[in-house]
């Protein structure tokens, strides 16, 4: 399953908004470069985060084949295309904007994210979706004590933490592994990816007397450099445990859109 971030309501960008991307953007398939551009555009087809739209002229090994099909996407009408890169063919992978879409999008193509094998901003890989220029993630060391309980069982008790503040998500509390009671947890095969933090290296579940609680905690062993302070630490979902910070029980977040791993 993939973790994704959600913009805070005060920072919602209008659907159809377009602005330049001040970074080199590349996409690859089968080890070959489908496109390479310094002229990409952000386009908001929905409010949570943007997509990249790339000038058709900046295709490198990629070739577009018109599927003769048009749909109304978030920013306007677009013509579906199949993308061919060498011997690789990705059906319906590309959308070339048509008349009725915002003017700056004319002559550009938006690719389905999963149709590409990899995406890069400059020389750094990007996962799940483009990073929004209006989202921010900060990982700050804190002397706040944190205790985690579930069904009355203490799963962690830490004298300090790293607080991770991410636009639109609840604050997450990353704890040193030595403060977690691992005898109470079992490993899970789940993996999540986040464009701002990277790929998780582990999830853990708790089997309580009343029920099994799946994937209540996670770790990033190798997060992105922007949040390097959380490397090797463990966080619990505020939504699924009783989390005490400096002795006070935090209310559980209730917005179903704000449940991504932070």
Structural commentary:
The protein is mainly β. It folds into two domains: 118 residues, Beta Complex (Metal Binding Protein, Guanine Nucleotide Exchange Factor, Chain A), CATH 2.170.150; 113 residues, Domain of unknown function (DUF427) (Metal Binding Protein, Guanine Nucleotide Exchange Factor, Chain A, Beta Complex), CATH 2.170.150.40. It is built from no helices and 24 strands. The strands form five sheets. It has a seven-stranded antiparallel sheet with strand order 1-4-5-9-8-7-6, with no helix packed on it. A seven-stranded antiparallel sheet has the order 12-15-16-22-21-20-17, with no helix packed on it. It is elongated. The N terminus is likely disordered.
Can you lay out the helices and strands and say which pair or pack?
Elements: E1 18-20, E2 25-29, E3 32-37, E4 41-43, E5 51-55, E6 62-73, E7 76-85, E8 88-97, E9 108-111, E10 118-121, E11 124-126, E12 137-142, E13 146-150, E14 153-158, E15 161-166, E16 172-175, E17 185-188, E18 193-194, E19 198-199, E20 202-207, E21 212-219, E22 234-236, E23 242-245, E24 248-249
Antiparallel strand pairs: 1-4, 2-3, 2-10, 4-5, 5-9, 6-7, 7-8, 8-9, 10-11, 12-15, 13-14, 13-23, 15-16, 16-22, 17-20, 18-19, 20-21, 21-22, 23-24
Radius of gyration: 21 Å
Mean pLDDT: 91
- Kindly identify the CATH topology of the largest domain: Metal Binding Protein, Guanine Nucleotide Exchange Factor, Chain A
* Largest sheet entry: 7 strands, antiparallel
How many domains is the backbone divided into? 2
Structural class: mainly beta
Can you count the helices?
0
Contiguous low-pLDDT stretches (5 residues minimum) are 1-10
Into which percent range does the helicity of residues fall?
under 10%
Shape: elongated
- Count of extended strands: 24
The side-by-side strand order for the widest beta sheet comes to: 1-4-5-9-8-7-6
What is the level 1 CATH name of the largest domain? Mainly Beta
The H-and-E topology, N to C, reads as: EEEEEEEEEEEEEEEEEEEEEEEE
Q: Any guess at the CATH architecture of the largest domain?
A: Beta Complex
The CATH superfamily of the largest domain turns out to be Domain of unknown function (DUF427)
Strand content: over 45%
* End-to-end distance: 14 Å
């Amino acid at each position: 399953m993939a973790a994704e971030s959600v913009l805070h309501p005060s920072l919602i960008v209008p659907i159809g908004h377009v602005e330049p991307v001040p970074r080199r953007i590349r996409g690859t398939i089968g080890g070959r470069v489908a496109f390479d551009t310094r002229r990409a555009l952000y386009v908001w087809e929905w409010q949570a985060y943007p997509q990249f739209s790339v000038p058709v002229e900046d295709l490198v090994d990629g070739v577009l084949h018109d599927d003769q099909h048009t749909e109304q996407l978030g920013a306007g009408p677009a013509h579906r295309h199949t993308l061919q890169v060498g011997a690789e063919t990705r059906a319906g992978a590309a959308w070339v904007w048509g008349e009725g879409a915002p003017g700056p999008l004319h002559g550009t193509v938006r690719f389905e994210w999963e149709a590409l094998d990899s995406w890069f901003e400059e020389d750094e890989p990007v996962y799940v979706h483009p990073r929004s220029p209006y989202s921010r993630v900060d990982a700050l060391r804190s002397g706040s004590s944190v205790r985690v309980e579930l069904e009355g069982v203490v799963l962690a008790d830490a004298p300090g933490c790293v607080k991770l503040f991410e636009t639109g998500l609840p604050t997450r509390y990353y704890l040193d592994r030595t403060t977690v009671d691992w005898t109470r947890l079992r490993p899970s095969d789940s993996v999540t990816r986040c464009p701002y933090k990277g790929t998780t290296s582990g999830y853990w579940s708790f089997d309580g007397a009343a029920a099994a609680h799946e994937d209540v905690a996670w770790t990033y062993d190798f997060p992105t450099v922007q949040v390097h302070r959380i490397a090797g630490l463990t966080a619990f979902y505020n939504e699924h445990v009783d989390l005490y910070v400096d002795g006070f029980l935090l209310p559980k977040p209730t917005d179903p859109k704000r449940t991504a791993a932070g």
